[in-house]
Amino acid sequence: MIHLSDINKTYPGAVPLHVLKGINLDIAKGELVSIMGASGSGKSTLLNILGILDSYDTGEYVLDGTLIRNLSENRAAELRNKLIGFVFQSFNLINYKDALENVALPLFYQGVSRRKRNKLALEQLDRMGLREWSHHLPSELSGGQKQRVAIARSLITKPAIILADEPTGALDSKTSVEVMKIFRQLNDEGMTTVIVTHDPNVGAQTNRIIRISDGIITQQSHA
Ligand SMILES: Nc1ncnc2c1ncn2[C@@H]1O[C@H](COP(=O)(O)OP(=O)(O)O)[C@@H](O)[C@H]1O
Ligand SMILES: [Mg+2]
Fold it and tell me: Where does the sequence pass through the membrane (predicted)?
């Protein structure tokens, strides 16, 4: 599903920063993996490259059979929208839209009718145990509920892969466990999932831990 070979990435600047130094990584369909490492080690850069949100300088990235190199913006967006759901530490919900509208938003951009997108959004919220909260604003929800809304939103386009950057970073440990339960359940249903975290308890709940240090993969261990 994901194949990276010898990926290098340097952020240009007065002092160029070589953040990824020859990353080799394969992630098969249906895997639940975590990427762990210290702050600044390159985890988010790697995840953003996987999500075609950022470019790389040298090496090869093949995503679901497509070589991700010199893609046009349109083609990159098309692949991203088709294949990938994103989940972030800070939830990235729109404050003035209720839970249902937030979940339905990706379908709005796809031109799906209001009736259909509300129906599908309610199904996803129901799946997250949030049916009764569909008309609440983010400010009326707990952190765990907000992240479940964000996960519902990431699922609404039926992605093949979920990429989550520190999805439990803003949550207490009990709520983190609940959110990890959701990722595990989605994985049981076949979802390929990559979770960036610095929390060993989160890593321990995935099936493979990839450790990165200063832009280099130092260790991979299966749970
Ligand atoms: N857009 C950018 N421009 C320049 N430097 C960046 C940029 N994004 C991240 N960095 C730097 O690259 C390094 C790796 O960042 P990042 O991938 O965010 O690490 P992590 O997610 O592991 O904390 C850090 O030193 C960070 O400051
Ligand atoms: Mg990061």
Answer: none
Residue 152 resides in a domain = yes
Atom of ligand 1 nearest to the CA of 43: 22
Any ligand 1 atom below 6 A from CB of 19: yes
Q: Please report the sign of the dihedral spanned by the C-alpha atoms of residue 118, residue 48, residue 94, residue 187.
A: positive
> What gap in Å lies between CA 161 and CA 5, rounded to an integer?
19
Low-confidence ranges of the chain (pLDDT < 50): none
Please state, as a whole number, how many other Cβ atoms lie within 10 Å of the Cβ of residue 53. Answer: 15
In a domain? residue 91: yes
Instruction: For 87-100, write each residue's pLDDT tens digit.
Output: 999 999 999 999 99
Query: Which pLDDT score, from 0 to 100, does residue 223 have?
Result: 66
Q: For residue 147, what are the domain limits?
A: 31-39+73-222
User: Is residue 58 included in any domain, yes or no?
Assistant: no
Judged by DSSP in three states, 183 sits in helix
Per-state percent for the chain, helix, strand, coil, to nearest 5: 35, 30, 35
